[in-house]
Amino acid sequence: MDTLKAMRARAGLALWASALVAAMAATMAHGAAPPAAAQAAGRWLTEPRDGIIEVSVSPEGVLEGKIVGGNHPGRLDAKNPDPALRSHELRGSVILKGMAWQGDGRWSGGTIYEPDTGRTYKCNVELLTDGTLKVRGYIGFSLLGKSQVWTRYTGSSLDLPPAP
Questions:
Q1: CA-to-CA distance for 15 and 17, rounded, in angstroms?
Q2: The whole model's pTM is what?
Q3: Within 10 Å of residue 84's Cβ, how many Cβ atoms?
Q4: Domain boundaries, the chain
């Protein structure tokens, strides 16, 4: 009788473990990011050092970035292809959208908007081992594009000094 109870207990434990593994696999299959993905969250100084982008990462690992500061307070989105948006301030605009977690510190599948030209590009983002963020915008293939390396912004002011 004790053997039958032990067998049932082991079978129950095996069933529970199997369900747990299946649930974890389903979560990862739906793009859930591990806690390491959250390391990209925070404020980043763009490579030309003229903008501050606040990056957030959803629980599913989707990365988004919006302009929160820079050296042109009050600058309008004058180059926007939509005439109705040209009178809007750039500060507060989401420029990095839909970046899906790929694992190993990488996101892809989203877009980045370049206010200087009014163009939107496909984008890849990579959190580098030195703590910087490599952002690559491109047309068609990743080879046809340009990269910037953003550094973590630790300042307190969202207004940067004007460019020389």
A1: 5
A2: 0.78
A3: 7
A4: 1-30, 35-152
Tokens for 136? 């690559």
Cβ neighbors of 29 (< 8 A, separation 6 or more) are: none
| 35-152 CATH fold | Lipocalin (2.40.128)
Point out which residues pair with 138 in neighbouring strands. 122, 145
CB 67 within 8 A of CB 90: yes
Can you name the residues that pair with 70 across neighbouring β-strands?
51, 159
Distance CA 99, CA 117 (A): 21
* Model pLDDT for residues 78-119, shown as the tens digit of each residue: 999 999 999 999 999 999 999 999 999 999 999 999 999 999
- The residue among 27, 28, 31, 75 whose CA lies nearest residue 51 is 75
Question: Strands, DSSP E only, in 13-164?
Answer: 42-45, 51-57, 63-70, 94-103, 106-114, 119-127, 133-138, 145-152
